[in-house]
Design goal:
There is one protein chain. The chain is an alpha/beta fold. It has one domain: Rossmann fold (3-Layer(aba) Sandwich), CATH 3.40.50. Helix content is about 30%, strand content about 15%. The chain has helices spanning about 20-30, 35-50, 55, 65-70, 70-75, 95-100, 115-125, 190-200, 235-245; strands spanning about 85-90, 110-115, 135-140, 175-180, 210-215, 250, 255, 270-279. Strands 1, 2, 3, 4, 5, 6, 7 and 8 form an 8-stranded mixed β-sheet that branches. The two termini are about 35 Å apart. About 35% of the residues are buried.
């Protein structure tokens, strides 16, 4: 995937909703509005230097996508069943993973992964934490990289947080996998492969769930800027059916023109909000 083009940062795009402000106040201890704003603007510059993604420019790292998902309350119930773990895939600075912890998922059973390890470092700056105070397991790597996805080590993890340099020892161990604003970055073949790998990581227990949201379209296969292959409800469901092979899944995608996508004087875009469960 080619490096995103850099655009000037616009501080006027920062606008926290009430729940977002409350979350950041609780996480950072910064209670004064202007001080919190300046803190987030400073961290935005650090994150943009790691990778100049449009979502960083538009303060996507301040949004709480996970808690706005319609399945979120049901997902939180999985935290109390056995030793199930939550994985936040393409976590960026870790805002959604930390939100799940704030809402009750045990911190030592939350995992996060991103291509850029420096995003996690920026997350410590944003949330005023450190590797010693934050017990979320972070794994840096590329989901499509065979070095990161070392199948020879599948099932070799001897402890819950063992082998945190690759994901494959932890196949079938995650009760819930959150995937926010990730699939739309790739063509159809890679999206299908990403779905297969998510299913490989997902627990075999009925009710285990992969859920998320990303930009979609009314017309399957259309593109938008650097996004090569957008999907609609029908094509998205078909892709997961293909990825699952002979396994039957419960797929529940919705499509809507999201108000969140219209921030910053941009026209509304179609969003897919979806979940896939084990039967």
């Amino acid at each position: 995937m080619r490096r995103a083009k850099m655009h000037p940062l616009d501080p006027t795009l920062l606008s926290l909703r009430d729940d977002e402000r409350a979350f950041f106040v609780a996480q950072t201890g910064i209670t004064e509005d202007d001080a919190l704003r300046q803190h987030i603007l400073r961290v935005q510059q650090l994150a943009y230097a790691v990778a100049p993604y449009p979502c960083i420019q538009r303060f996507g790292f301040t949004r709480l996508k996970i808690s706005r998902h319609p399945e979120y309350r049901e997902v939180l119930k999985l935290a109390t069943s056995g030793d199930g773990r939550l994985l936040d895939l393409a976590c960026c600075v870790g805002n959604d993973a930390r939100k799940a912890v704030a809402d009750g998922w045990p911190e030592d059973r939350v995992w996060a992964t991103d291509l850029h390890a420096d995003f996690w470092t920026v997350g410590h700056e944003l949330f005023r934490s450190s590797p010693e105070t934050c017990k979320i397991t972070f794994v840096a790597g590329d989901l499509f990289d065979d070095v990161f996805w070392d199948l020879s080590r599948a099932g070799s993890a001897s402890a819950p947080n063992a082998a945190a340099s690759v994901l494959s020892p932890h196949l079938g161990t995650f009760a819930a996998i959150h995937v926010g604003a990730f699939f739309h970055l790739f063509g159809l073949d890679r999206q299908t492969e990403a779905a297969r790998r998510c299913l490989a990581l997902l627990s075999r227990q009925p009710g285990s769930i992969v859920f998320g949201s990303h930009i979609g379209s009314d017309t399957a296969g259309s593109s938008l800027g650097s996004l090569p292959h957008l999907q609609n409800v029908e094509s998205w469901t078909a892709m997961w059916t293909e990825a699952a092979g002979d396994e039957a899944l419960i797929s529940d995608p919705e499509s809507y023109a999201g108000a969140k996508a219209a921030r910053g004087n941009r026209p509304p875009m179609k969003w897919l909000v979806w979940s896939v469960r084990r039967k």
